[in-house]
Design a protein that fits this description.
The chain is α+β, with helices and mostly antiparallel strands. The protein has helices at about 20-25, 80-90, 100-115, 120-125, 135-145; strands at about 1-5, 10, 45-50, 50-55, 70. Helix 2 (about 80-90) packs across helix 3. Keywords: 2Fe-2S, Iron, Iron-sulfur, Metal-binding, Oxidoreductase.
Length: about 150
């Protein structure tokens, strides 16, 4: 199957129901997208599919054929993604950092769809889990990235 990931079409050999996460990590070697829970609860595996935040651990690869997929490796190619990463760094959001690629992807999707989000918008969109509890710093970074837009 052909998958368009980060602007490049990749022909991959995988079963149709193989989770997109495993195609990204194991077949293509892009390890920025993390495995967390495997049941779409934590969000460590979040990627953008046609601009929408999607949990790649439960997304069959075949279901996204023909759709543009963005991973953390290419998020800064988008101006919104670049602002989010800059805000993350400036706010020193990560502690352990494991969930942060998924957090950045979710924040990027939010700001692409809602450039000036309210605190309720941020709370509603930023549902990824962070075991270190950096939620206040995450929300602050999202607000900072929105203000720079």
């Amino acid at each position: 199957m052909d998958l368009m990931i980060n602007g490049v079409t990749h022909s991959v050999e995988a079963e149709a129901d193989t989770p997109l996460l495993w195609v990204i990590r194991d077949v293509l070697g892009m390890t920025g997208t993390k495995y967390g829970c495997g049941v779409a609860q934590c969000g460590a595996c979040t990627v953008l599919v046609d601009g929408q935040a999607m949990r790649s651990c439960v997304t069959p690869a075949e279901s996204v054929v023909g759709l543009p997929i963005t991973t953390i490796e290419a998020v800064e190619q988008d101006p919104v993604g670049r602002r989010v990463v800059e805000a993350w760094v400036a706010s020193q959001v990560p502690q352990c950092g494991y969930c942060q690629s998924g957090q950045v992807m979710a924040a990027t999707a939010l700001l692409q769809q809602t450039p000036k989000p309210t605190d309720d918008d941020i709370a509603g969109a930023m549902t990824n889990l962070c075991r270190c509890g950096t939620y206040n710093a995450i929300a602050a970074a999202v607000r900072q990235a929105a203000a720079q837009g």
